[in-house]
Amino acid sequence: MKKREFLLNALVMAASSLILRTANIAYRVYITDKVGAAGMGLYQLISSVFLLAVTVCTSGISLAVTRLVAEATGSGRPSRGRNAVLKCVLWSGTLSLVSGGALWMGADFIAAELLGSEAAAAPLRILVPGLPFMAVSSCMRGYFVALRSAVKASAGEFLEQFSTMGTVAAIFLYFAPSGLENACCAIMLGATAGEILSCLFNLALYLHSVRKNRVPAGAEKTSFRSVAHIALPSMAGYTARNILSTIENVLIPRGLKKNGASADASLAQYGMIHGMVMPMLYFPSAFLSAFSSLLVPEVAEACAAGYKRSIERLTCRSIQLTLLFSFFVMSVFWAFSGELGLAFYKNSDTGNILRILCPLVPLMYLDSIVDSILKGLDQQVSSLKYNFSDSCIRVALVYFLVPQFGVKGYLCVLFFSTIFNATLSIHRLIVVSRVEIRVLDWIVKPLVSAALAVSLVILLENLIPGIFAFGTWGTAAAHAGVSLILYCSFLWMTGAFTKPDLQWLVGIFRAVPRTESPSYRKPLESRR
Length: 528
Fold this sequence. Notes:
mainly alpha
């Protein structure tokens, strides 16, 4: 794949991801205004249960489509890729009917016994009809990613997000649902409508792409075994992890209540962390999430072709850029958490928790990139093991620590879990790809540069009061912008980002096809 094509796709997906995350944050602010922090907590609980059903029918299937279509395209067998899409749609569609039926029949029990609120039953049932449409959309997005069609991969997500927001806003505007149950029903109805519209749109784009590229039906078939080889480990891992995650999410409000909080206060505390702070922490990773999704087909093709050196170079660059970016984000969150909390949610408590959790940002972002590279290297079984172990430990820690220490106990769980999972994944990638982590250039120098940058901004504001006084959002943007300029300057002066790095970035804009010397054309050997 040409480097310029990769960059353009990454930029398109990064821009769309940034817009979508901005819209999602705005949507959450809107929901919080309508239902309050306790309502946001109930919304998060309902979403965590529904996510389990979504996981059963979609987890691993987008990866399977991407891998199978990319490999078929790379080997000159496009008809095999088309058949792979069909097999994956049948796979995920069948699972969506099974999981949806189970959720519909068990909604009353889940709401009363697990979530502790009978008001959750109706919203859960409203979400069920959207499952088959989500399953098909997941397959379509995997297909577009495999073809590096970033615009098409993002278009359906745009339609889903904004149609959901529009539907919910219209319901609240014209019908003004009263009570927590009716408000949640309105929110879930908007989500289902968005999924249906997005699926129909994605399906139309797929059919147009097949006709435009004249992909024949062909006699080459993809077996369900090939689909299962890729999808089952991810599905099993994500399903098991989400079962444990659902248990964890149920245990958190209960543990907070045992620690002395009221029912509404426990839901509010849970909603603040999961519904407000965590989206803020992941918001800047919009740039990386687009890059990580494109890494899967890129690494898969290089792995299939035996381009070991390409894999090593791509892995090193991915780790380097992720760390450089994440240390800057962490420093901004730490230095300006108070005003960011007020800017997003008009809530100082949100900023306090954001400052506590921001040191996890580098590991959170790096873990996402590493996970994508491992999937491209056919190491999804290892990811399954790490994720499952992490989830088991989280449930145990939540069960024992939250009732005893409350919110502080849960924050400790988040720290341990992030460090544990990221450490295992990074170690596996080092073993498989044989990359070397340059601690001084990738960690020490960026960390010091980021700390100096935000410190100078704070010092400047103290010396010249009002220099960044442009309103809540303007001040936050000015702080981040000036910090970024200083950070980049310090990276250059310390040698953490050098002329060869800049030349590599500039070279991406040139359409240079991937080449390998003969010594690197041997297939990758299996490593443990």
